[in-house]
Amino acid sequence: MKLSLLDFDEVKEGKARGDMTAEERIGAADRRKMDGNSLFKEEILEEAMQQYEMAIAYLGDDFMFQLFGKYRDMALAVKNPCHLNMAACLIKLKRYEEAIAQCTIVLVEDENNAKALFRRGKARAELGQTDAAREDFLKARKHAPEDKAILRELRLLDEHDRAIYKKQKEIYGGIFGPPPQPKTQAI
Predict the structure, then answer these.
(1) For residues 118-153, b (16+ Cβ closer than 10 Å) or e, as one string?
(2) Where are the TPR repeats (predicted)?
(3) Residue 9: which domain range?
(4) Per the structure, how many domains does the chain have?
């Protein structure tokens, strides 16, 4: 019999995933998340992502579908940070499309998650999707108005817009009218 990595993981944990109680599965996922966090801090990003993926595997859609109440909340408290931590790894690895996908998974469950909006905005900005990035940052700012990183990213987008306008003005001789005003709103 050939064991996959996930099968080996289950044997090491002591029980197959299907034989675990909800608490045991959530606990096993949380341990994987913590292992991933340690690897992330050491900048071992690929291995950190593997740990986050294994944690998410414990909390698959089939399992989540069965949960409600406090168990669902407990599982989401592990699962969503794993997706967000995966996004952080992917941004550092310049794999922006994948980072956007991880953030969007969280936003389906929690549309006002400021961290998911921020990281998706960051990935979109890196891809040159400045309008979509600005939209994410502005929504994130509504839910975390004191977050300096969000404000910094909005300022960078405004500077980017002004630089593009200046370059277009040089190229086209000012036929576009006055420079754009910052699109960010006062707090």
Answers:
(1) bbbbbbbbeeebbebbbbbbbbbbeebeebeebbeb
(2) 114-147
(3) 5-93
(4) 1
Cα 100 to the center of its chain, rounded Å: 7
Give the domain CATH number at 50: 1.25.40.10
pTM as predicted = 0.81
Residue 65 lies in a domain: yes
**CB 10 within 8 Å of CB 17:** yes
**Average pLDDT of the residues in 90-111:** 97
Phi, psi of 107 (to 5 degrees): -70, -25
Q: What is the rounded CA–CA span in Å between residue 92 and residue 99?
A: 10
Contact yes or no for 1/7 (Cβ under 8 A): no
**Which DSSP helix (H) or strand (E) runs through 91?**
helix 69-92
- For residue 93 the two structure tokens come to 């690895």
The mean-pLDDT minimum among 46-50, 148-152, 161-165 falls in 161-165
Radius of gyration for the chain, computed over Cα atoms and rounded to the nearest angstrom? 21
